[in-house]
Amino acid sequence: MSISTQSTDGRWSSRWLFVLAAAGSAVGLGNIWKFPYIAGENGGGAFVLIYLVCVACVGAPIMISEVMLGRKGRASPINTMRKLTQAAGASSRWTFLGWMGVLAGILILSYYAVIAGWALNYIWLTASGTFDSASAQVATTTFDQLQQDPLTMMGWHGVFMLITIWIVARGVSRGLETAIKWFMPLLFVLLLVLLAYSMNSGGFAQGWAFMFDFNWSVIGPETWLIAMGQAFFTLSLGMGTMMVYGSYVPEDSHIGSTVLTIVALDTFVAVAAGLAIFPLVFVNGLEVGQGPGLMFVTLPLAFGQLPMGAVFGTVFFVLVSFAAITSAISLTEPAIAYVVEEYNAKRSRVAISLGVFCWILGLGTVFSFNIWADVKPLLGLNFFELVDQLSQNIMLPLGGLLIALFTVWALPQTIVREQLEVGSDRVMLCWRVVGGVIAPLGVAAVFIYTLLPLFTG
Ligand code: TRP
Fold first, then answer.
1. Nearest CA to 272 among 210, 200, 188?
2. CB-based pocket (< 6 A), ligand 1
3. Which domains does the chain possess?
4. Per the confidence metrics, is the pTM higher than 0.70?
5. pLDDT by residue (tens digit) across 123-151?
C-alpha cells in the first residue's frame, strides 16, 4: 500500500509556537470549568495533590510518547501509525489507534461546543448586567432557563462551531497559528487580571487553604481515579491531538523539555483558575461542591455581589471562550489532517463538512438537557452522558494506554533514543519504567474502574 508521506500544510514556525499551540489545546474547559468543580467536590487540597501526581507520572510520559510518535511519523495520526508500524515491523492493527482518535475527537467536539456555547452566552449575560446584585434564585433560574431552551443553545453552539471551523479552515499557519498567537497571551493576561481581582476580594486565604491544605482523610481510591481521568482530559491525551500537533514540530526542538513546559503551563492555568474562583465563592458564603454549576451559577452569583463584578465576570467568560476555541480546533486536527493528506482534499471543505457534522451530532447533547432528558438509550444514560462517557472514560484511556505501550514496547528503541536525544542507559531505563510500566498501569486502573460500573450498573 502506498502511504502518502506529505502531511497537511503544517509546520509550526518555531518551537515556541508549538508550545503555545499544545498549551492552547490542553488549556480549555477542562482547566477552567471542570478542574475547579471536581476539586470542589473532592475536598480541594487532597484532590489537587493527587491530580499533580497523576499529571507528572502518567500525563507527562504519555504526552512525550504522543509527540514523539507524531514527530517521527510526520503525518496524521492514522498515517503516522501506518508508517511507524511498518518501520517497527509491528502489527498494522495498531493503526486502530488513529481511527479511534478521529472518532473520539468528533464525539468530544460535538458536546464540547455545546458547553463552550454556554460560555459564549454568559459573556453576553454577564456584560448586560443579568447578575448585578442578583439573588441565588436568579442565578439558578438563568442557567436552568438556558438549559431548557434548545433554540438558544443551538444558536450559541452554532456560533462556537462557526468560529472554530473558520479558524481550522484557514490552515495550520494562517488559521491555527494566528489564533493561537493572539488568544494565548491574552488568555494569560486575563487570567492574571482575574487572579489579582480575586486576591483582593477578601477570600483569598480561604481559597488558598481550600486548594492546598492537604487532608488525607477525604482521599479514597476513587479520588485517584477521578484525578487520573482529569489529567488525561486536561492534557488532551489519548486521541492523537498531541500526535498531530507533534507532527508539525520543527526538527530542532527537544521533546522532553518542550512537553514539560506544556504540562507546566496547563497545570498553572488549572491551579490559577481554582485560585481565581474559590476565593470569590468563599467570600460570598457560597458552596464550592456545586458540581458543573460552579462556573455557571455560583460564579456569576459571586461576581454579581462584588464591585465591578459585571466587568470582571465578562472578562472571565471571554477567557473561558478563548480557552475553549484553542482546544476545539485541536479536536478537529487529527480527522482533518487525515482526510486532507489521504484524499488530497481541500482543507476548507473538509473543515466545513466536519463542522456541520459535529454541530448536528451536538444537537443530541443540546436535547439531552431538555426534550430528550429522559431518553436513555443505553445503560440508563442519556445521549450526552453516553457520548461523554464513551469518549472520555473509554476511548481516551484506551488510546493513551495503547500509545504508551506501542512507544515503549513495539517501537524500536533506537528511534526512541534518537527522538528523545537520550544517550545514557540509565535515563532510558527510567523512561521505560515510567512510560512503559507505571503510566500504562495507572491508565489501566482508570479504565477498569470506569468500565466496571457501566456493566455492573
Ligand atoms: N484539553 C482540553 C480541555 O482541557 C480539551 C481537549 C482538547 C481534549 N483536545 C483534546 C481532550 C483531546 C482530550 C483529547 O478542555
1. 188
2. 25-26, 28-31, 108, 233-234, 236, 238-239, 241, 327, 330-331, 396
3. 15-456 (1.20.1740)
4. yes
5. 999 999 999 988 888 999 999 999 999 99
